[in-house]
Amino acid sequence: MQTISQLSALSIPSSAEAASSIIGGSLYIQLYNVLQTNLLQREQILHAMKQLYISDSISPVRMHSLSRSPSPSSALSVDRSMLEAAQEKEKELVNEVLELQWRLLCAQDEVQRLKAKAAQVPTFHRIRDLVSGHNICMFTLRCSYLTDLMSECCWGCC
Q1: Are 128 and 142 in contact (CB under 8 A)?
Q2: Which residues are in coiled coils (predicted)?
Q3: How are the residues of the chain apportioned to helix, strand and coil, as percentages rounded to the nearest 5?
């Protein structure tokens, strides 16, 4: 509950790019903390349910019905091991989802950065206006700009 109240206390920085990075990162951390708290609470609830089930199984009223089953302790251990395996698998899947969400957030930030950079690429008309009256080949100018962009490629393919 403490983590949820912190969400409303976020301060938004002045620049949009800084805001998306800071809010995205801190929001991710806060959501991760909420998820961890939720998992702990779930484990506590499951533990309490196990304790109730065990105490119900041992109570005198239920003892008669349990005596007809072949082996109540083996049924309990199978249920317990299946429950623990399911919990472990759920934790793995939740962590995988969180990792994928984080990678998606990073990819979206990268797309925004590349869009901003692409908006700065001079168009043919702007280049023509810049070099009009000069003896500069527009093709050479465009190629040198593309070479500069390729040297900054973040994927390492260029």
Answers
A1: no
A2: 83-117
A3: 80, 0, 20
Count of residues making up the chain: 158
**Token pair of 10 as six digits:** 């976020």
Pairwise CA distance, residues 148 & 151, whole Å: 5
| 152 phi/psi in degrees, rounded to 5 | -100, 10
Contact status, residue 4 vs residue 38, Cβ threshold 8 Å? no
Same domain for 99 and 131, yes or no, is no
- Single pTM value for the model: 0.35
Does one domain contain both 133 and 102?
no
User: Residue 13: which residues within 8 A CB-CB, separation 6 or more?
Assistant: 19, 22
Q: Report the distance separating Cα 30 and Cα 6, nearest Å.
A: 8
- Indicate the burial class of 71 (C-beta count within 10 angstroms; 0-12, 13-18, 19 or more): exposed
pLDDT digits (tens, 9 = 90+) for 9-66: 444 444 555 556 666 677 888 888 888 888 888 888 888 888 887 777 676 554 444 4
Same domain, 107 and 127: no
